[in-house]
Amino acid sequence: MIEAITHLPFCGHGPWAANYGRGMARALVLNATYEPLSVVSQRRAAVLVLCDRADSIHGSGEMLRSASIEVELPSVVRLRYYVKAPARRASAVTRRGVFARDRFQCQYCGARAENIDHVRPRSRGGNHIWENVVAACRRCNSHKRDRLLSEIHMRPARVPRAPGRFAWVRQAVPTMPECWRAYLPGDSAPV
C-alpha cells in the first residue's frame, strides 16, 4: 500500500504539480534542525510521513482515510534527514507581499487597500524598495498623486519596513496556524 502511494500524482512530479493542492489546507515543512523549509499541501505532508521521510510534529485534527489506513493530516512535519537549503536572499517587492505586510489596509486611512503607493514618488527620486512602498486605498492614492507626504500632510500608520526572514510563510497561507509560530523565530507577530 505505501509503495503505491509514492507513485501517485500527488508526490510532486509532473507539469501540473505546481497547481496541485491549491484548495487544500497547508503544512509547514521543517528541516531536521527544525528550520522552516517550505509550505506544502497537507496531503503532500501526509505522503512524506507515510514514506518515512518525515515525522509529524503537529496534527491538524483532520483525517486522511483509505480502505486500509487512517492517518491524521499533519500541520507541521520535520524531515528525518538534513537538507542543505540555499541562503535566502532578500524577498522582492511584490504587490501581494506589500498587501500581506500591511494586512490589506490602507496605511493612510485604514480602509481596504487596492493599490500600492510609493511614499516618496518615483518621479521625485523614490525607489521601488520595501521601505518606500505601502498599501493604499484608491481614494488616498489618488489624493496623494506624485506629491511628498510633507506637502499634503499625510502619514502612514506604520513606518514601511522590509518583511522578516520568514515572511514567505505568511504569503503562502491566508491565515497562519497558531502551532507554526513556535518554528518561526523573530516573526511571531499575528497575521
What's the alpha carbon Rg, rounded to whole Å?
Answer: 21 Å
Distance between the termini: 39 Å
What's the domain count?
2
Described by strand count, sense and barrel closure, the largest sheet is: 4 strands, mixed
Question: Topology, please?
Answer:
Blueprint: H1 2-5, E1 26-30, E2 36-41, H2 42-50, E3 54-65, E4 70-79, H3 95-101, E5 115-118, E6 133-136, H4 138-144, H5 149-152, H6 167-172
Parallel strand pairs: 1-4
Antiparallel strand pairs: 1-2, 3-4, 5-6
Describe this structure in words.
With 191 residues, this protein is an alpha+beta fold. The protein has 2 domains: 2-87 and 166-183, no CATH class; 95-152, DNA Binding (I), subunit A, CATH 1.10.30. It has helices at residues 2-5, 42-50, 95-101, 138-144, 149-152, 167-172, and strands at residues 26-30, 36-41, 54-65, 70-79, 115-118, 133-136. It has a 4-stranded mixed sheet, with helices on one face. It is elongated, with a radius of gyration of 21 Å. The two termini are 39 Å apart. Mean pLDDT is 83; it is low at 1-22.
Give a summary of the structure in a few sentences:
Helix content is 19%, strand content 21%. It is an alpha+beta fold and 191 residues long.
